Every structure is written in structure tokens, then in C-alpha cells.
Amino acid sequence: MKILVLNGINLNMFGKRDPVQYGTITLDEINNQVRQLGTELGAEVETFQTNIEGEMCERIHKAHGDKVNAVMINAGAWTHYSYGIRDALSILSCPIVEVHMSNIHAREAFRHVSVIAEIARGQICGFGVDSYLLALRACVAAVETAKK
Questions:
Q1: Which residues carry out catalysis?
Q2: pLDDT at residue 36 above 90?
Q3: What is the pLDDT averaged over residues 43-67?
Q4: How far apart are CA 146 and CA 140, in angstroms?
Q5: Residue 98 has what DSSP assignment?
Q6: What distance separates the 2 farthest-apart alpha carbons in the chain?
């Protein structure tokens, strides 16, 4: 089982950016925890982060060709306005799980809207690094359910 974890704009700054919202954990630490859990769950996890929207779309296109089994995405601020990333994701036939460290629904009004949500299997937010771990479990469960 191959699961792709996508992290968008500014998420490389976890650990430095707004510790009230995001804590002090770094993206590398998050990725390590996700990969470790992936191994325990029998999934090969690949992580990718970029601050360039076109690179994110290109990586999503590659995921289509790679036939990944599921995609977990924290698009960062692109969540709220990037129809380009949303359209790239809509090409995929695998489950997509949207994830956020903070509770986007308890923050500024512009963060309450996700252009990705309507094409995602689900959205997990507000639990810090546990959001990623829960989202990985959701990806694995969605893939296993599809196999039945």
C-alpha cells in the first residue's frame, strides 16, 4: 500500500511558526512519526512539501501515474483558494484525506472554507500531530475497505 503525504505552503516552517496554533513540532518530526506509523500499519509512506503551487500540482499528477493508493494533504493556505490544486487532486481515483494541525473552523473566517473538502473522503483538523496520525489511519482504512 502506497500513501502519499502532501504538505503545502509554509508548512516547512512548523516548529517556528505560531506555536500557539501549531506547537513546536517540526515537519521533519511529523514526517518521521507518520512514516513510523505507516510501517506499523503496513503502508509505504512518501512525504512531499513545497511552497510552489505548480510543483504541488506536478507531484499530484505524478501520484496519478504512480497509482498511489491514497493521498493525505495539508495544503496550508492553498486549502482555502487553490482551485488548481483542487483540480489536480480531482484527477486522482484514490481516497484523499484533508488534514490540518489546527482547527481551521475555529480560526479566521477565511480559513473556514476548504476548496478541497468536497472531493476529499474526509477532513481531520485540530489535533496537532495527531491529526496526521489519524489521517494516515483513515487513509489505510479507506484503502482496505476499497479492497473488499
A1: 22, 100
A2: yes
A3: 97
A4: 10
A5: E
A6: 43
Confidence category of residue 110, pLDDT binned at 50, 70, 90: confident
Domain range for 91: 2-147
User: Which grid coordinates are listed for 34?
Assistant: 507518520
Contact 124, 131 (CB under 8 A): yes
Does pTM top 0.90 for this prediction?
yes
- CATH code assigned at 28: 3.40.50.9100
Strand ordering across the sheet containing 96-100: 44-49, 2-9, 70-76, 96-100, 122-125
* Cα within 13 Å of Cα(138), Cβ side: 21
Rounded (10°) CA dihedral 68, 135, 28, 103 = 140
Q: What is the pLDDT of residue 85?
A: 98
DSSP annotation of 12 reads: G
How many structural domains compose the chain? 1
SS3 state of residue 9:
strand
With both helix axes pointing from N to C terminus, report the angle between 129-147 and 27-41 in degrees, rounded to the nearest 10. Answer: 30
